[in-house]
Amino acid sequence: MSMRSSVGAGLLAKAVSQATHIPESEMKQKKAQWPWHLLTVVVLVGLAGALYYATSLMSYEWRWNRVPQYFAYQAETSQRAADISTVVELVRKGDVAEVTLRNDAGVEQKLSVADNSLQVARGDDVAEGDVVGVTRHWALGPLMWGLWTTLWLSVVSGVLGLAIGLATGLCRLSSNPTLRDLSTIYVELVRGTPLLVQIFIFYFFIGTVLNLSREFAGVAALSLFTGAYVAEIVRAGVQSIARGQNEAARSLGLSAGQSMRHVVLPQAFKRVLPPLAGQFISLVKDTSLVSVIAITELLKSGREVITTSFSPFEILFCVAGLYLLINLPLSKMASRLERRLAQSD
Fold first, then answer.
1. 3-state helix/strand/coil string of 62-129
2. Phi, psi of 237, rounded to the nearest 5 degrees
3. C-alpha–C-alpha distance, residues 266 and 269, integer Å
4. Burial class (CB in 10 A: 0-12, 13-18, 19+), 269
5. Is the dihedral of CA 22, 27, 29, 34 positive or negative?
6. Does an H or E element contain 221, and which?
7. Where are the domains of the chain?
């Protein structure tokens, strides 16, 4: 019994050792790469230094302290007397002052205001509409509202564009000449004209005829533009699957639709994932063009903030950082999904 346990322990120790052992060649490869990683750091530091030197030549004064208020700030709401009244009670509780007003009819009005904004004292008479004080609460700044607009435009346009692109891509492979011709005309027209022109057409022409809102026109233009590129990605992905896969599925009794849904498309999805991710990343950046029809997305919010903050570089760097905040996780998620699908093969 002891011999069996010792043999088992030995096998377990050997398995653990093999699992945790790093091949010598891999270790050498990692050691050989660290100078290149160091060079990367040096290049990035050099670029940061060059930027700082360039701004010093322009005598530019950085004012990062002005930036936070455009992300979030403390908004003030005035608290006013509802009638001609007298301050009959005033109680301070920390940073808050509770004020009780009473009119000639004996009706009381209780207000809670910030203590340092208090405009009255006990026994004061106030008229209707007089400011007693203000309440403060945190509110989102214009950059965060612009980020929200960019996010919902991207998500809605991306979902619609994916549905349009999938249907159009399959139509381009259809044996029906009408479906194939119409889908080809749509793809070529959209891909052959600038997105900015399409936005103008949707809003100023189609939008005027159909009385569309600027948001609807913007989403429609972005969706159709994205759908055309997704259609070509889908078409190329499906055509990259060997014809024998479809023929084998049909020989097993599957219909054309079942073969496409259960055999061809799952394999094609693995191949089109990288270009699809790239297209959706481009879509996030393309949303900046809808500012021409007065939609205040992230870039337009940044431009408006620059006019009041007089800190153009700081705001533009923040805008670029917010775009990265959207696109980098999207890219990482696509890469992780791609690796997971590759492991499942």
1. CCHHHCHHHCEEEEEEEEECCCCEEEEEEEEECCEEEEEEEECCCCEEEEEEEHHHCCCCCCCEECCC
2. -65, -45
3. 5
4. middle
5. positive
6. helix 214-239
7. 77-137, 142-343
133, containing H or E segment: strand 131-140
pTM score of the predicted model: 0.80
* Beta pairing class for 96-103 and 85-93: antiparallel
Question: Which residues sit opposite 102 in a β-bridge?
Answer: 86, 108
Q: What is the CATH number of domain 142-343?
A: 1.10.3720.10
The SS3 call for residue 58 is: coil
Burial of 60 (0-12, 13-18, 19+ CB in 10 A): middle
12 is written with which tokens?
């377990």
Q: How is domain 77-137 classified at the CATH fold level?
A: OB fold (Dihydrolipoamide Acetyltransferase, E2P) (2.40.50)
Q: What is the pLDDT of residues 35-66, one digit of tens each?
A: 888 899 999 999 989 988 887 787 788 888 99
Alpha-helix runs per DSSP H in 130-213 = 142-172, 177-191, 195-200, 207-210
User: Distance between the two ends of the chain, CA-based, in angstroms?
Assistant: 43
Note the pLDDT tens digit of each residue in 79-107: 999 989 988 988 888 889 999 999 888 88
